[in-house]
Amino acid sequence: MDQTDVPAADEVIRIGDLEIRYLSEAGGGCRMGCFEMRVAPNGLIPPPHSHPGHEELVYVLEGKLRYRVGDTTRDLGPGDSMATACGEVHSFSNPNAEPVRALVINTPDIGADYFREIASIMGGKGPPDKAAVVATMRKFGLVPASPASVGH
Can you give the pTM of this predicted structure? Predict the structure, then answer.
């Protein structure tokens, strides 16, 4: 991907109560991607998952994000960050009254197309097609966590 393929920073991908705005996709010799994520209060969020081939760093800009990696859960405020190693099960939520805004960095990049495809599945009438969600997750290197791998 060259600089002409960089997504417009004003494109907002909406998935339920999440908003994703890609700031930089991998390309030009760089494997890293970065997007801004907004999470509504008590918003519907993705289930716990891992990405065996991708590391992730979350850095909170506004609000308080509850972030869980493995057995560790932290409430991250502005200026706080938490990293997820390849293959670690992780999840997040916003149980607070204010929205959250965070930067998310993946290496290698998962890509904006993943979020666009998930948004199209989730945006239909009625409940989403779970099989289509799982297939899309796997297509982009994400693995839904089994109930046994999610701590309480």
Answer: 0.86
